[in-house]
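[step 3/7] fold_predict: job queued, chain A
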Amino acid sequence: MTTRTDTAPYRDVAIFANLRDEEIADLIEGAERVEVAPGTTVIREGDPPEAFYILEKGRCAVRRVSEGGRTVDLATLVPTAAFGEMALLANRPRSASVVAVEPSVLLRISRERFDRFIEEGHPSISKVILNMARVLCDRVESVNRQFAQLVDKASAAPNKTSKELQTFKEQLYNEWAF
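[step 4/7] structure written:
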């Protein structure tokens, strides 16, 4: 009798939505569990996409260096968050860094493993990719909502910042070419 991986900690992971326990187990078996101390950089902005992660325990910060050279915190990740999938899907360098802000436990799923599931036509990988796309759409929708609020507030009191927001809006929404 084969012992299966405990999937209970992963049932609430958004990229595993609508997957059966057996499907989750197939995907996470053989993945690497990584424990990191506070201050550890898990993903570095600009690095190639070698894996994506699921945060099991702890908290991590998503950070990006601004054009002015300042590090900006973009988000705080909590357990069940998946990260690193954007660069993996787009096959582009990391767009931000992820740093542990407290002792954390991560599940690391390598690019090789992910690609192998795709190449072999693993029955669950299309669900995972669709769920990743949904998560990314949720993030874009959140940014759109927050940006609209910023533009609205800036429009009420025009100044240099509102002009910068207007320029950003034009670049972001007028230059999309997919």
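[step 5/7] annotate
The chain is about 40% helix and 25% strand.
The first strand starts at residue 32 and ends at 36.
exit 0
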